[in-house]
Amino acid sequence: MTTEATTVYDVHCHIHETPKSFKDLDNEGQTVYCVQATKYSDWADVLDLKTQFDKIIIPAFGVHPWFVERVQSGEIPSTWASELRQVLMQHGGIVGECGLDKAARNATSLIPFEPQVEILETQLGIAHELCLPVSLHCVRAFGVLADMLRKLEKSQRLPLRIMLHSYSGSPDMLQQMFLRGELGQRIYVSFSRFVNCRNRAKSEECIRIVPAERLLVESDLHDASSTAAALEAAIALVAEARGWDFSQTKKTLAANSRAFFKYF
Predict the structure, then answer these.
(1) How would you class 251 by CB atoms within 10 Å of its CB: exposed for 0-12, middle for 13-18, buried for 19 or more?
(2) Cα(57)–Cα(46) distance, integer angstroms
(3) For the chain, percent helix, then strand, then coil, each to nearest 5?
(4) CA 159-157-258 angle, 5° bins
(5) What is the pLDDT of residue 6?
(6) Dmax of the chain from CA atoms?
(7) What per-residue confidence (pLDDT) applies to 1?
(8) Average pLDDT in the chain
(9) 22 near 224, Cβ under 8 Å?
(10) CA separation, residue 124 to residues 14, 36, 41, 45, 117 (Å)
């Protein structure tokens, strides 16, 4: 029988993008998936998945930095922010995936950065307004992100809880920029096999820096059939870095995930 202690939380994935894999979802409740929309047009897909598998899906809605040009072009309508607020108020969930990415490219050039900042600021404001957690993507923009969050800290407008998903920055940046002050009390840091096993030594050092109660794991995958193995590898990464046994690591991460999502 599944208990809270044995549940595994995939705190960041995109399995709504591969419907043929839904048959592989763990519908017994041993795994809970936070499924993150990224581009407005997929918000309905995440809602449909939540309807089909209500007890094991936590929905997340946002505009990813890779798709900000769609806002500029009008492909994503100018009403996107009010629609985001409405879908969250009506259906629950968290804000995400959103963030900053200085390495992101379209077919010919880098994706403009200033619109990314503006669109993220809007989403952070909605997360604060609705008292919801937020899942953040960040690539080569940790200084800008930290400055943005520190300004919100000073104005008392930080989101309730903040996840740095598949954190890829340095241990020093994590310690100095994100884990201090009130911001440091709201930050959770998630790790995945997909991103964090590329530089295992750096990732393990980061894992040791994060307070034990704010560690999370994710698959960051699009295919439900692959998530179980990816989550097991991420849990093993945390266990090895902290010197914990695998079973206790699962229990700690499950408790941390429930604390991050709260309502689920």
Answers:
(1) middle
(2) 9
(3) 55, 20, 30
(4) 20
(5) 81
(6) 53
(7) 36
(8) 96
(9) yes
(10) 21, 16, 20, 23, 10
CA angle, corner 253, sides to 213 and 154, nearest 5? 40
Q: Is the pLDDT of residue 227 over 80?
A: yes
pLDDT in tens, 111-151: 999 999 999 999 999 999 999 999 999 999 999 999 999 99
Q: Are strands 134-139 and 162-164 parallel, antiparallel or unpaired?
A: parallel
**Residue range 15-50, pLDDT digits in tens:** 999 999 999 998 788 999 999 999 999 999 999 999
Cβ-count burial 75-103 (b if 16+ within 10 Å, e if not): ebeeebbeebbebbeeeebbbbbbbbbee
The tokens describing 44, both together, are 């309905």
* Residues whose CB is less than 8 angstroms from the CB of residue 23 and which lie 6 or more positions away in sequence, other chains included: none
Tokens representing 103?
A: 């390495």
- Give the pair of three-digit tokens for residue 195: 């991103």
CA pair distance 257, 264, nearest whole angstrom? 9
Q: How far is Cα 55 from Cα 72, in angstroms, rounded to an integer? A: 36
Phi then psi for residue 38, to 5 deg, are: -135, -20
* DSSP codes of every residue in 10-35: EEEE-GGG-GGGGGGS-TTTTEEEEE
Which residues 6+ apart lie within 8 Å of 91 measured at CB?
Answer: 47, 50, 59
